[in-house]
Amino acid sequence: MTEIRVYDLHAHTFYSDGALAPAELVARAAANGVQVLALTDHDVTDGVPEAQAAAQQAGITLVPGVEISVTWGGQTVHIVGLQIDITHPGLQAGLARLREFRAWRAEEIGRRLAKAGIPGAIEGARARAQRGLVSRTHFAQFLVAAGHAADVRSVFKKFLVHGKPGYVPGEWASLDEAIGWIRAAGGQAVLAHPARYKITATRLKKLLGEFRAAGGAAIEVVSGSHSRDDMFRFAQFAHSFGLLASSGSDFHGPQNYYMDLGPLPPLPDGCIPVWQTWGGNAPVVGGLSEPAPTAMDGGSAENAGASFPPVVG
Ligand code: AMP
Ligand code: MN
Ligand code: MN
Ligand code: MN
Known about the structure:
Layout: E1 7-8, H1 22-31, E2 36-39, H2 48-58, E3 61-72, E4 75-82, H3 89-115, H4 121-128, H5 136-145, H6 152-160, H7 175-184, E5 188-191, H8 201-213, E6 218-223, H9 228-241, E7 244-248
Parallel strand pairs: 1-2, 2-3, 5-6, 6-7
Antiparallel strand pairs: 3-4, 4-5
Helix pairs in contact: 1-2, 3-4, 3-7, 4-5, 5-6
The chain binds adenosine monophosphate (AMP) and manganese (II) ion (3 copies).
């Protein structure tokens, strides 16, 4: 008998730029029918123990995870680590380095915004960073509260992206480093929300190839920030690059514009779920040694998958 389980393998708490405490996140996930939840805060794993305790209480499974900031070819991409040992010294040393850069960057964003006529931004962002990790999300929240833009989405466009006053270029981990730390900690590396990167088709293929060559295991095929078309496109990419498929909301909080925890569409037919390698007798692999034959060989991706709720774009 095949047991159908509900997975959400990408979510944030207030240990990074989410709104909820780990116990609140877990309670919401459980209430929404999630049975396997991964906590994947940006560059930090401090919320995992609390989430694990809450998950045990709630009777759901918590997958220890992280979302690592990476600079690849001058742009930022995010690599999720799943099933990581959060006590691994190499992983923690790497994350600590990224948080150091993050702290410096926050001050630099504050200085640049001050020069652009917006004082108090670093204080405003820090006041919103509940556990000390300052994200652009916290600057966005400050800027909206201070009346500089109508909402978080427009504030990014106006202030926080490349070419705008509050933008500071990233010096995050390299792709090899991030995947190396995750694998050293016994985890699997997942390319997060691939449709969200502003990237040409050629460069995207280069990214997928380098990700796979560096030991990346999976890509997020289903994501709260993917459209239905994105989902089918990346199901095809997972297949052709011999990568497993993951599924996660990227939930940040009840007010967030992304999808809520829980109601994600199923992975399209032909995808090999990343969780298929977990538990039981299946070994946890870094990637597939050879692209496995799948249902997609027999049919077009457009016809794959059943009916599902709409995905936000
Ligand atoms: P940081 O890691 O500090 O550079 O912040 C990145 C975070 O900002 C992402 O994880 C999102 O949560 C948020 N973010 C990035 N771009 C946007 C955007 N255009 N609109 C709203 N939130 C965004
Ligand atoms: Mn975020
Ligand atoms: Mn991300
Ligand atoms: Mn995320």
